[in-house]
Design goal:
Elements lengths: L2 H4 L4 H20 L5 H8 L3 H7 L3 H22 L7 H18 L1 H5 L6 H23 L9 H18 L9 H16 L6
Helix pairs in contact: 2-3, 3-4, 5-6, 5-8, 6-8, 6-9, 6-10, 8-9, 9-10
């Protein structure tokens, strides 16, 4: 278990860890071979602080991935998929996830899916996604005969392509507009057939 996951951190320690994780994402995105010392410098902390918080580079990368999946999980909850109208929840969750994924793309691209904590977080996120899509299907937004596992896979692929394939996405792109494009594409392919 990572030192950052072992026990709750004080507010100042939590800010330090957040600064290190954010710096690691930026630095490693530009230079995957960057050292912990370079990450410490970018975070504005001493090299010893990074070494005290993270036992190794692998520990830092693992913590980055776990943190990214926790943020995605919280972003989906923030969209209130259990109580909001299905289209509202789907749009908000998509916008939230796009915004987060753009900021943690390096960490998510290097996730060790065999890690039990990462696997559990992914499973929880996928279950929430499946429930939201089932809610949308029950509301008639998604065709009744659509395979929801396939819909989820396409939905996630659309979000991933939006984040990785959009050369215009420089941090100023509107997550709401991008979410609208993802959902429009998704529902154009799996929405109920139109009457002719």
């Amino acid at each position: 278990m990572s030192p950052t996951a072992a026990r709750p951190l004080r507010a100042d320690a939590e800010r330090t860890v957040r600064a290190i994780l954010d710096a690691a994402e930026r630095v490693l995105s530009e230079n995957p071979n960057a050292t912990l010392e370079q990450i410490a410098e970018a975070a504005g902390v001493a090299r010893t602080t990074v070494h005290r918080r993270f036992a190794s580079r692998e520990d830092l990368l693992r913590t980055m991935a776990v943190n990214a999946w926790r943020r995605i999980d919280a972003a989906i909850d923030a969209a209130r998929p259990q109580t909001a109208p299905p289209m509202v929840a789907l749009h908000q969750a998509t916008a939230n996830v796009i915004e987060i994924k753009y900021g943690v793309a390096y960490a998510l691209d290097r996730v060790d899916e065999t890690d039990p904590e990462v696997a559990a977080l992914q499973e929880a996120v996928f279950a929430k996604c499946d429930a939201a899509l089932a809610h949308a299907q029950a509301d008639g937004i998604i065709a009744a005969d659509a395979d929801l596992v396939w819909v989820r896979r396409v939905y996630i692929a659309l979000i991933t392509e939006t984040v990785h394939g959009n050369t215009d996405l420089d941090g100023t792109a509107d997550p709401d507009a991008l979410a609208g494009r993802v959902i429009g594409t998704l529902l154009g392919g799996v929405g109920p057939a139109r009457q002719r």
